[in-house]
Amino acid sequence: MIKTYKSDEARLKMRDILDDVTAGRESVIERYNKPIAVVVPHALWQSIKRKRKADLDAISKRMDAGEYYTLEQAEALLTQDGLLP
């Protein structure tokens, strides 16, 4: 279960938030009723960073090989699929 804290509450309960993260749980911190941060275990954050880097590297290689659409091509395909008017 993900716990949600208001920013003022998070300042007062940082130790509890860190205890939750140590136990493998995530916490959301809100400001003005909008989520602004998620506190996650460090290992999960590292995993997300590695996956993002691998994804960006793969995209970069595909683009270097000429595998991409121009804006006009993308708009035409989206229009053809009914996703753009």
Name a few traits of the molecule:
alpha+beta, YefM-like fold, 3 strands
Give an account of the 3D structure.
By secondary structure, the protein is α+β, with helices and mostly antiparallel strands. The chain folds into two domains: 3-40, YefM-like domain (YefM-like fold); 43-80. It is built from four helices and three strands, in the order E-H-H-E-E-H-H. The chain has a three-stranded mixed beta sheet with strand order 1-2-3. A hairpin with a 2-residue loop joins strand 2 and strand 3. The chain is elongated, with a radius of gyration of 20 Å. The protein starts with a strand and ends in a 5-residue tail after the last helix. 2% of the residues are buried. The model has no long low-confidence stretch (mean pLDDT 95).
Topology:
Layout: E1 3-6, H1 7-12, H2 14-22, E2 27-31, E3 34-39, H3 42-64, H4 71-80
Parallel strand pairs: 1-2
Antiparallel strand pairs: 2-3
Précis, in short:
The protein has 85 residues and is an alpha+beta fold.
What is the class of the largest domain in the CATH system?
Alpha Beta
Strand count, sense and barrel status of the largest sheet are:
3 strands, mixed
Helix and strand element order: EHHEEHH
Structural shape: elongated
The count of helical stretches stands at 4
**Percentage of β-strand residues:** 15-25%
Would you tell me the overall average pLDDT? 95
| Helix proportion range | 55-70%
Order of strands across the main sheet:
1-2-3
